[in-house]
Amino acid sequence: MNSKYKGKLLISTPDMSGDIFSRAVVLVIDHNEDGAFGLVLNKKNELATKAIQKKMEIDIDVFIGGPVETNKSFFIIKGEIPITNSYLYFHEDYYLTEDIENVVNSIIDGSLNKKSVKVFSGYSGWSKNQLENEIEKKFWIVANVYQMDFTEKDPQLWKKIMQNMGGEYLIWANSPIDVSLN
Questions:
Q1: pTM exceeds 0.90 for this model
Q2: Pairing of strands 117-127, 62-64
Q3: Sequence spans of domains, the chain
Q4: Segment (H or E) for 170
């Protein structure tokens, strides 16, 4: 079983420009012999955010989890005790769930602080060996996770990680999104 990248971050390289993965930071939630599943941590979905805020009258942001099944919702929740029976622990005090009913009800009744939740529409998925091939082609930099708050809502996450890596990555961090403008 291949779980080599489970729990790691994928940081897109400039070779991934022009699509959803441009300047993306993806948390790999699961990785096995059939493929990989992850969520983009740093791309806010403005349309979904406005829709959920209007419909539910809750001030909460929605992030683009990836280009697959964008009509599905996923939630990363920080907490030791899950609010649902349907969940997957993936890192210390964090778990993933799709249980929208329990999440929404828990936020409304106050048993779950909305700051402990990150909402995603869609996910990032790779078929068998696809992620390994993309990493080999240097589309992604693989990084270990150290003291990261997965519920943080930071649109500058990609740039901050690149700056912290230093060296040649500083050039990438400070380059314009459209490198042809450089």
A1: yes
A2: parallel
A3: 9-71+122-181
A4: helix 168-174
